[in-house]
Design goal:
Length: 75
């Protein structure tokens, strides 16, 4: 029971870490010295913020949590 709870907590922490990384990566409006356009999305923002290099701690937490969930479920 303890392994399942700890595994679920680690998976949740990993997801929250990845969400925090994506949200707090930078301002949505881009550089503040440029004039504001019709959109809040900067022109240079890409899907790179979802990559492994920025999210490896969250992925590691979720992987450890998944292992604990599987090992707790096997007992």
């Amino acid at each position: 029971m303890f392994l399942i709870g700890l595994g679920a907590l680690l998976v949740l922490c990993g997801v929250l870490y990845m969400i925090r990384t994506a949200i707090w990566r930078g301002p949505l409006s881009g550089d503040s010295s440029r004039p504001v356009r019709d959109t809040l999305e900067p022109p240079t923002r890409s899907m790179r913020f979802l990559g492994i290099s920025t999210n490896w701690p969250g992925i590691l937490l979720m992987a450890i949590g998944a292992v604990l969930l599987l090992s707790g479920a096997s007992f």
